[in-house]
Amino acid sequence: MKAQRILGSPPFIMLGVAIARLTPKRFGYWLARRMARDMSRRRNHLFSTLRANLKHVVGPQASEQHLDRLAENAIYHAGCTYFDMFRARRQDLERGRGTVRIDPDAWALTRSVLSDKQGAVLVGPHMSNFDLAVQWMTAQGIQIQALSLAMPDLGTRVVNWLRTHRGMTMTPIDVRSLRLALERLRRGGVVMTGVDRPVSRDDDPTPFFDAPAKMPTGHVRLALQTGTRIVVACCVQEPDGYYALRLAPPLDMETTGDRAQDVRHNVRRVLAIIEEMIRQAPDQWLMFVPVWPEEDSD
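Request: output the structure for the sequence above.
Response:
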């Protein structure tokens, strides 16, 4: 625990940022590839978890070799995204000189939605450098409250520190943070959360890639309670190395008067968009926890 506190402390994180900025990009990517190959060879827990999750995305027809390659590429890609995020400078993001790209017309529409008085819940899958893309949005003046895990691991704590340092408001999920989120949305603000991994055993199973998974429902409950829209976004690295921020049209919640049914229906609408985003680049879906643990435990 003492070592984790040291590794997750601001001075150590700043040291990591400084090292990343001084390290040639080619070497950083080479190191990420070496680590990915080692994890693939040892078939460690992280590799096996990624592989099991990706099997649901590509389907049962995928060969064992293809699944191995996807999982190894995902680990490599994760290492590259961390390296690039550590190297990024906030002033470059503010001036549009970073490695994040977005279609100007799509951003103009999304910015108007995120800035109007109705408020918005921003959600997305854990794809590519989504953190850096959201940091880019923050650098453009969008104030975001992020609902994070109540008990984050070391890696998440490091990322949370970077998010805070670059202008985001981080609030671990609890009664107080949810109250703050409701107040922010009612004032026309933006609240962000991830929606492609289980967070509570109390959630009902929902179809996700044609198999039941205990996916979160809080984003839909917030939107229904406040009358806000949901904006689904993802990040995909393109062949030239730029991280493309892609956004779906804003979703107004569809209601019938049956709250439980409304939650299930709108959660599924959001997940359908998430599925299509992940299918664009399966080996950029960086999901390191089991999404279907009961099914994949064997």
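Residues 1-9 have pLDDT under 50 and may be disordered.
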